[in-house]
Every structure is written in structure tokens, then in C-alpha cells.
Specification:
With 466 residues, the protein is of the alpha/beta class. It has a domain at 4-246: Amidase signature (AS) enzymes, CATH 3.90.1300. 41% of the residues lie in helices and 12% in strands. An eleven-stranded mixed beta sheet has the order 1-3-2-4-6-5-10-11-9-7-8, with helices on both faces.
């Protein structure tokens, strides 16, 4: 699909539309939508910003490429003066005292935020059902889940309620819902985009990234939000990716795929068939396709959830009704803490907090948590070896198609296993993009650390292929 950002920018410059009308039309769609994608609308702020853009255009002033472009924000990012609920009871009335770095960069570029978007509470889930605002419905089939945890963000883009959205990806939370809703979703290299102002789930794998309908829009937004931030010591300087360079695909000679992913009994038969057929199409272009060996999916999921649960138990310990969050009073301070956290966290969040605290407790820490860290190092080493043999790793996004709404809540283990093909790339800190091609839930493109540009180049190669 063509770039929506370029198209709208040209319409604004040519005065074919006004920014105020553009924003109001999108706000109306968001208000009327029946997909449960909206936690709160930023309508007053959005219309004020739109008026400023219209005033600049009327004066003949130049506007930037992102200026006046409406976008959505997953409701785990701080935006000063707005509600930031993380789709949870404990933060349902929490107002942000500051703005997240990535969002501020977009505001500085003139983009206009329309909505804080529904998601799994604190990112805890793979379906966007674990939320106080009601399950997000799939953009293609409203009986199915929207995916998670950035389900509202993916559905808003798919339905053209927003031009792009900023999601959050810890173990696949941008890539999986993008695949479920047939849009592009990018998890950058860990540290390319600042996490400052993102409510932390698992700090060592949390990534800020865009969801959009084209690789060009992904590139534009990624450039805008990338860069070193003194407020996040994991960030690094990264050069902007030019449009011309993103279209250069000649450097890609070899593509790898994990044999055990394809041979996994849990992989849907049609997804497997389509994935293998797509590899054959790639081979016919002259690109070499190689089989690679990797960790079993059960090991990847177990390692990821071991580390993620431990980190979320630590990160959410501050939400006790005294420091942050809705406070429920009891007879004494100890009981106040207990009832506040018991009543205000969802069942899934409590499951992860309790599991994480146990993993970090004496007797379990050495046996399980440290073993998880060791396996994570082995995963990173495996990727380093693989990228000496291939330029790109291609994989399915999910082992199965989206489940019906309600099914995931009945079976948390199956929900965890739905992350089997995404969590490994998170543990390896790799840039990974979901593209709506190849299978019903898309394809996943990964490259070596800090090689985000190559991911976009290969995505554009696939655009040329079909």
C-alpha cells in the first residue's frame, strides 16, 4: 500500500483537505467504532493542534512531513495531562505528569495524537482481552481477538481510524496483533527508541515501535522516534534510514528460517503450507534460502516468561495505592496494601506478579531465574552465529490463527504458547517486522542487532516480489 503519511501531507499542502476536518473525521470514526479500541479520546488537544496546522498552511508556511498526521498511542505511554490507565483498575484515574520521550518527539514533529488505545492490562496478554475496557475485536472478523497486547493500536490502523499508532512490544505485542489484523508492525533493535515514559512490563525486552499500513510509514515514524536519550541509559545513537536506502535490496543474498519452527506440531497446517510456498517464491528470485537450527519453542516461551514475570513483579511493586494507583482502605496498612493490589490487578497480572516473586525468592532464583538468564545468553550467541550465515531470518508470526474472543482467557497456557515465534527475537534484542504477506497472520522479518535498515530493505523486496 502507498504511504498514507505522504498522501495526507500532499493533500494538506495542496489545500485539498483541512487538518481540522481530517482530525474531526478520524475522531468521529473512533467515537462510533464498535471494536473496543478506545480508552480515552484526546479530542480537545487534537483539534487545537489541527487548528494550528491549518493556520500555518493559510499563511503559506511550510509544514513538516508528520505535521498534522493523526496517530494513536497505546495506553501505556505517558502524555502529560491525559489519563494513562494501562487498561487497569489500579491506574484508571491516573493522569500523566509528563510525556514519554517517543511521544514527545512525534509531538515536536507536529503529529497529532487522537486516542489512548485499548490493550492488555500492563501488556499482560496476547489477545487484548485482559482489559477493563472490554476485549478488542479483530479488524477482519469481530468474533476473533484483536491480538495483544497492542490490539487496540493494530485495529485502529487496520480500520483507518489512525494513520499510524505507537505500540509496545515486549515479547511480540506489536508484531502479533499486526499479523492478526493484516498491517505492518515493527519492533526496533532494543535501545534504538527510548523507553522513558513507557509503563514498564519487562524492562530488558520492552521496545517502542510503530504500527502502520506501509513500510514507508514505518520508516518515517521510526526515524522520528529513534535516538539516544539521557533519560534511558539503554538507548544509542542511530542514523536515520533514508527512503532511497530502504529501497536498495541488492545486498540481500541469503535468507534463513528455523527448521524446528516449521516442523512444530503446533503450527497450523495452512500457515505452514503458505510459509513454505512463500520461501519457494523467494528462491526463484535467486536469493539463497537456508535451514537453521534454533531452540525449541517451549524453551523460548519458558525462558521469556521466566524473565518477564520476574521483571514485572519488580516493576509493579510500586503500585500499592500509596506511591501510585487507586487505594482501597482496610483496617491497617498491611491489609490496605493487600486489598489494593488484590482487587485492582487483573487475574492475569496477579498470576505474573505472584509467579515473578516466586522466581526471585530464595531457592528458586538460582535454580530457575539464573538459568533463564543463561539461556538468554545462549539465544543471543545463536543469533550471532546465524547472522554470519544469512542476512535475514524469516518466520511465521504466530503458530495459529486468531482465537475466538473468550478462548484465551479460559486457557492461559495456550495464550503463552501463541508467543512461541516472537519471544526469541525479543530475547535476542533484534529488529523484527511483521509484514501482512505470505500467511494469514503475516511473516516476520529479522536481522542482526542495529540492522533495522536491512529489515525494511527486505520488506520492500517482498513488496516487489508480490
Amino acid at each position: 500500500m502507498e504511504s498514507q503519511i505522504h498522501k495526507i501531507h500532499q493533500q494538506l499542502v495542496n489545500k485539498e483537505i483541512t487538518c481540522t476536518r481530517l482530525v474531526q473525521d478520524r475522531l468521529n470514526l473512533l467515537k462510533e467504532n464498535t471494536y473496543n479500541t478506545v480508552n480515552s479520546l484526546l479530542d480537545q488537544q487534537a483539534l487545537k493542534l489541527a487548528n494550528k496546522v491549518d493556520a500555518k498552511i493559510a499563511k503559506g508556511e511550510t509544514i513538516g512531513l508528520l505535521e498534522g498526521i493523526p496517530f494513536g498511542i497505546k495506553d501505556v505511554y505517558m502524555v502529560q495531562g491525559t489519563l494513562t490507565t494501562a487498561s487497569s483498575d489500579i491506574l484508571k484515574n491516573y493522569k500523566s505528569p509528563y510525556t514519554a520521550t517517543a511521544i514527545q518527539k512525534l509531538l515536536d514533529a507536529g503529529a497529532i495524537p487522537l486516542v489512548k488505545e485499548n490493550c492488555d492490562s500492563f501488556g499482560h496478554g496476547s489477545s487484548s482481552e485482559n482489559t477493563i475496557f472490554g476485549a478488542v475485536k479483530n479488524a477482519v472478523n469481530s468474533n476473533l481477538v484483536g491480538g495483544g497486547s497492542s490490539g487496540g493500536s493494530a485495529v485502529n490502523v487496520a480500520k483507518d481510524y489512525t494513520v499510524f499508532s505507537i505500540g509496545g512490544d515486549t515479547g511480540g505485542s506489536i508484531r502479533q496483533p499486526a499479523g492478526y489484523n493484516n498491517v505492518y508492525g515493527f519492533k526496533p533493535t532494543y535501545g534504538r527508541v527510548s523507553r522513558f515514559g513507557l509503563i514498564a512490563y519487562a524492562s530488558s525486552t520492552d521496545c517502542v515501535g510503530p504500527i502502520a499500513k506501509s513500510t514507508e510509514d514505518i520508516r518515517i515514524v521510526l526515524n522520528a522516534i529513534s535516538g539516544k536519550d539521557e533519560k534511558d541509559q539503554t538507548t544509542f545513537h542511530s542514523d536515520a534510514i533514508s527512503k532511497e536506502r530502504s529501497l536498495k535490496t541488492i545486498a540481500i543474498k541469503t535468507v534463513g528460517y528455523f527448521k524446528n519452527f516449521v516442523e512444530n506440531d503446533a503450527l497450523d497446517h495452512q500457515i505452514k503450507t503458505d510459509f513454505l510456498a512463500y520461501l519457494e517464491k523467494i528462491k526463484k528470485t535467486g536469493v539463497e534460502v537456508k535451514e537453521l537450527e534454533f531452540f525449541e519453542s517451549d524453551t523460548l516461551v519458558s525462558t521469556y516468561y521466566t524473565l518477564a514475570m520476574a521483571e514485572t513483579a519488580s516493576n509493579l511493586s510500586r503500585l500499592d495505592g500509596t506511591n501510585y494507583g487507586e487505594r482501597l482502605e482496610a483496617e491497617n496498612l498491611k491489609d490496605t496494601y493487600a486489598i489494593t493490589r488484590s482487587e485492582n490487578f487483573s487475574e492475569e497480572s496477579k498470576r505474573r506478579i505472584v509467579g515473578g516473586n516466586q522466581l526471585l525468592s530464595q531457592g528458586f532464583s538460582d535454580e530457575i531465574y539464573l538459568k533463564g538468564l543463561n539461556i538468554r545468553d545462549q539465544i543471543s550467541n545463536n543469533f550471532e552465529k546465524d547472522f554470519k550465515e544469512v542476512d535475514i531470518i524469516l518466520s511465521p508470526v504466530t503458530p495459529a490463527t486468531p482465537p475466538k474472543i473468550g478462548d484465551s482467557l479460559k486457557d492461559p497456557l495456550t495464550m503463552y504458547l501463541s508467543d512461541a515465534y516472537t519471544v526469541g527475537f525479543s530475547l535476542g534484542e533484534l529488529p523484527t517486522l511483521t509484514v501482512p504477506k505470505g500467511t494469514s497472520t503475516g511473516l516476520q522479518i529479522s536481522a542482526a542487532k542495529k540492522n533495522d535498515e536491512l529489515v525494511l530493505q527486505f520488506a520492500n523486496f517482498l513488496n516487489d516480489l508480490i
